[in-house]
Amino acid sequence: MFETLKAAPADAILGLIAEHRNDPRPEKIDLGVGVFRTAEGETPVLDVVKLAEQRLVDTQASKAYIGTAGDPDFNAAMQELTFADSVDADRLVTIQAPGGSGSLRVAASLILRARPNAKVWVSDPTWANHIPLLGGAGLELATHPYYDAKKHVIKVDEMLDTLSKVDKGDIVLLHACCHNPSGVDPSEDEWRAIADVIVERDLVPFVDMAYQGFARSLTDDAFIVRHLAARVPEMIVSNSCSKNFGLYRDRVGSLSVLAPDQASRDIVNSQMNNVVRTIYSVPPDHGAVVVAMILGDPDLKAAWRVELAEMRGRLREMREMLHDALKTKAPEHDFSHLVRAVGMFCFLGISEEQVNRLKKEYGVYMVGSSRINTAGITAHNVNYLADSIAATL
Ligand code: LMR
Fold first, then answer.
1. Helix (H/G/I), strand (E/B), else coil: 238
2. Which of 20, 31, 33 to mutate to test the pocket of ligand 1 (most atoms within 8 A of CB)?
3. How many domains does the chain have?
4. pLDDT value, residue 273
5. 3-class DSSP assignment, residue 330
6. Using the 8-state DSSP alphabet, how is residue 287 labeled?
7. Which of 30, 103, 127, 179 to mutate to test the pocket of ligand 1 (most atoms within 8 A of CB)?
8. Which of 122, 131, 332, 393 is the most buried (most CB within 10 A)?
9. CATH for 375
10. Same domain? 203 vs 286
11. What confidence tens digit (pLDDT) does each residue in 169-228 have?
């Protein structure tokens, strides 16, 4: 039967990991997949995670299944981190999921069960895996304007105009913060205007929060989630702990649903757990218990916040450093959008052909759209990077 298959294309983001690894040039730079890196170019386990893991090894008495919803302490802590006191907890349910992607996948099945004909509106552009993941699950997707690639700003009027015309009851996928790939988030006023359209059109917000704490702060980055929770009857939120806890390969995320009342919340809860059973049965435990330990212990939580702030600060510094280097090496080009962006990513704003030249001629790897992971920049490589970019302009 397998003779009917053709090889699948390499993943636009994950494919770069192997390409970069196999490049023998010592000066190569990886600005591809979104993982945090230190000034030494490493992605270490957070100190606070190591501490919690040690406690877990010392105290965990069983590896028996914990159930489709995962760890109750983790779910409660993630719900609190996401919604704070913005809405009555009786209307909320949160389950553990295998990373942000696992959460999105469960959400997709839930949407298909609840409103199979709804379209899911995503920003143009959006994370390269949103459309394959949600579309692959069977959802119909459409895009709304978002990023102006020339001016490097949000096309907020066009976005509002499109959303104000979509069918009532459709779903709109929002990036809570650190928009991936552009790094450009709506201002609080713009978020309010987006929320107004969502309320007016009876749209269901589906918020992907993969970078909480990477833009401004844990609280500021949850602004749109909490603002909407106070205004809408129904909402879906997918969280990832890959970036803010550095737990990428342990696959830790959560899925929360806000329902109109407790009775419908309980029905949604039963459906979510039923979906989980039909996909991966039960989520992986280790990373989620680590997160639950950190969020449940004031000292560990404080230590985590410090490490998170350090990661956030480094991302900002690296964007500024590349911007300053490009100002010197390519003074006729404006890269000021680099320092206006937030979080891990931004567009360099060069063509796909220039991206390919950077890869072939200089060993500089980034996504074809010219999205860069600013964590890949270091004081050591920034001059080579800026020289390479300048040479391809
Ligand atoms: C990214 O956008 O690079 C990350 O979210 C990793 C991934 O899975 O694509």
1. strand
2. 33
3. 2
4. 98
5. coil
6. H
7. 127
8. 122
9. 3.90.1150.10
10. yes
11. 999 999 999 999 999 999 999 999 999 999 999 999 999 999 999 999 999 999 999 999
